[in-house]
Design brief:
The protein is of the alpha/beta class. It has helices at 25-34, 50-60, 72-83, 95-103, 132-143, 167-178, 191-200, 214-223, 238-243, 257-265; strands at 6-9, 16-17, 20-21, 38-43, 69-71, 88-92, 107-108, 121-124, 147-150, 156-159, 162-165, 183-184, 207-211, 227-231, 252-254. The protein is built from ten helices and 15 strands. The strands form four sheets. A six-stranded parallel sheet has the order 5-4-1-13-14-15, sandwiched between helices.
Length: 267
Amino acid sequence: MRDYRAFILDLDGVIYRSERLLPGAREFIAWADASGRKLVFVSNNSFATPAEVTAKLVRLGAPAPEGRVLTSGAAAARLIAARRPGGSVYVLGVPAVEGMAERAGLRVVWRDGMDAPTPDAVLVGLDFGLSYDRLRRGLRAILAGADFIGVNRDPMLPVEDGFDPGTGSLVAALEYASGRTAEIVGKPAPGIMLEALRAMGAEARETLVVGDGVELDIVAGHAAGMDAALVLTGMSTRAQAEAATGLSKPDYVFDGIGDLLTALRGE
């Protein structure tokens, strides 16, 4: 393998699954830090703030995650705030995402019903309290012309005992109903990967993206000009990796992040 000097690491399915740190994750982070390499965690998480994700990493025993977590939920809130300063947004997501929108300077509306003018934007994340009425509010706003922003297009969320529906399933429902296509902020769009490079002060040619989804992490890494490694502890299988083409074809495939560490050490 090349001597990569920086790493962009996905979280769900790479570093942990639900409340379980995956084998080799702690050792990989410790090795990168001890050897002077840079790393940042980039998650398509749409239901927790960067501070909450950082706290989870600390709780699970990951070394020194502070200041090294980027989430697409926070990036989506920043995007809407930049386009619609002081604007209104309907959040189809959990309260943490509403909080991120408010901290970005947006007004969160339609929490309990369509009791205000049509919001400027609809922000779709993962909504654990999803109901038909909440989905209906999102559709009505989109049909009335609100900006349609999706945190990510993840079809599934890896959890400890399998998979749960991901944010992409909600985005797809609203796209099908409205006939409009959402603008996606997180992976596979390359924007958050480029933000991670800037945060590290790293160059694309020296950076390796590590993820668990060929159509998400691998595509995003390649679209941003980086090499990408797939680990088989999350969404995608070895068969899917072998069948992948174009931007979704990983440069490397490993059973887990511990095996990637072994290869990087030349062992």
